[in-house]
Amino acid sequence: MALASVDSRASVGLQSPAVRIEVHLSAGLPGLAMVGLPETGVRESKDRVRSAIINSGFTFPQQRITINLAPAELPKEGARFDLAIALGILAASQQLPESALDELCCVGELGLSGDLRAVKGVLSDSLAAAQAGQRLLVPQVNASEARLVSEARVFSASTLSAVVAFLRGQYDAIEHHAAHEIAVSNAAFSHDLSQVKGQFGARRALEIAAAGGHSLLLCGPPGAGKTLLASCLPSILPPLSAERQLQVTALHSLINQPRALSSQPPFRAPHHSATRPALIGGGSGIPRPGEISLAHAGVLFLDELPEFDRHVLESLREPLESGEVWIARAKHQLRYPAQFQLIAAMNPCPCGQKGAKPDTCRCTPEQTARYSGRISGPLLDRLDLSIRVDAVPLTLLQANSADGECSAAVRQRVLAARARQTIRQGEVLNANLPATDLQTHLSANAQAFLQTVGERMALSARAYHRVLRVARTIADLADASEVAETMVAEALTYRQRPN
């Protein structure tokens, strides 16, 4: 027959909308026309497909070929439609039975020799195909990622000729990957709190941040251990659920950075030269997720915070509050999850020695004020905890024995605190508690104390509520049902601001 259709899927954020590829052969001068809002990468597929079909031993029709990618209003980009287009041409020219394409979704890029190459976003395709009851055909290199969805029926091949042989009934020409249970990686963490010497105040702040999902600012001289402390945070966080693992892996798949399923929370540490699209998301064509989405369900570490562009930092304000980011373009409006824990580190002044022992800082007050002024007040107001990290004495560094707990011991307390939160308020962490729920378990003395000190410190309404959330986490770590005055006092000590 001169008309054939093949199912495929586009990649639009975390969504994988269905695309039907229709191929029509008609009389006329040989040529290939493609319609349906294809981007440059899709339009170039006609040359790849032609060479792949010929080099795989099949005949490329010497007729007028019209290819429609429906729905027409959905922009299509990338080389993921190559395989489906090639199969549609072969089916329309009767080199392949069209009935073999029923309930089959094809995704893959073709090389000129007919080999199948990897595409990004396959995990989202596998989820969507499983929900639609379709079989999914992917390149061999994408098979392991597609199999992460236990309900999916995944087939894979390494060449176009192997795909055609499979569709013709030669099952030994293609490997069938049966569905399986999700495998969780439990590899050891690269950093452990036992590596930290001293820094008991910072360790305490890190434990509170992990227990309640709070953001944290570490301020101190160079070499004090700020980066090491931040790198230890994933080791004391609870393991990711199976649903979160799939979501995190799907986000990394969108940028061609495959991440195996793992219970470990992601840790992202972009350089301070990162642009706003790199941090928030964006780019040409269909916007891609940024670092804040790649850190979803994990940690985003911003070292040398004042060195980041001010406009880049300001773009963090809304995601910190909402836990998601909307990227609007002329043709697209995408939502990416961004529920991350922000850990930031900075020096107290340009030379970094202000307040150190001995104090060798030579920065003028104007230089110090200008340096700390690179971070806006509204952004600082959104950070739950802020603490000074002083340099560790050399005598302590030379000690062979560790003077602090390991991450495993701290994680047990964090898990217990998280369990109390779950019993009391469901899946909502203390860092995200609504203001209406913050006064419920607050003692009268603690409330009066916070009001008095808060007025003296000129706390904003947002800062006031964040102090209450931190105090609630301190109470959970202490297994206390009521937030006492001492817990509020400790929470107020974490409102230090760099100056």
TrEMBL record:
The lineage of its organism: Bacteria, Pseudomonadati, Pseudomonadota, Gammaproteobacteria, Moraxellales. Belongs to the Mg-chelatase subunits D/I family. ComM subfamily. PANTHER family: COMPETENCE PROTEIN COMM, MAGNESIUM-CHELATASE SUBUNIT CHLI. It comes from the Bacteria. GO terms for molecular function: ATP binding. It comes from Paraperlucidibaca baekdonensis. Pfam families: ChlI (PF13541), Mg_chelatase (PF01078), Mg_chelatase_C (PF13335). This is Magnesium chelatase family protein. Residues 212-393 form the AAA+ ATPase domain. Gene3D superfamilies: 3.30.230.10, P-loop containing nucleotide triphosphate hydrolases. InterPro entries: AAA+_ATPase (IPR003593), CHLI-like (IPR045006), Mg_chelat-rel (IPR004482), Mg_chelat-rel_C (IPR025158), Mg_chelatse_chII-like_cat_dom (IPR000523), P-loop_NTPase (IPR027417), Ribosomal_Su5_D2-typ_SF (IPR020568), Ribsml_uS5_D2-typ_fold_subgr (IPR014721).
